[in-house]
Amino acid sequence: MKIYWDGKIKNLVGPKVKELRIEKKLTQRNLAIQLQLLGYEFNELTILRIEQQTRFVSDMELLALATFFDININELYPK
What is the pTM of this model? Predict the structure, then answer.
């Protein structure tokens, strides 16, 4: 399996996750807690690293984020 990584950023969705989190007036910790309550394994550090684009994001995590924010997964990606 080839992972497409430019050596700098590990995901494209981080900035949108941060934008959506801030719109909902949630801290990274609060977002992680809300996702945990939905049955997903997130913690504050996971959210931080996703937003900083220093962590790869799995398809299941993308689904969890899109579900929580009530958006289509494609809306997490830059236009």
Answer: 0.91
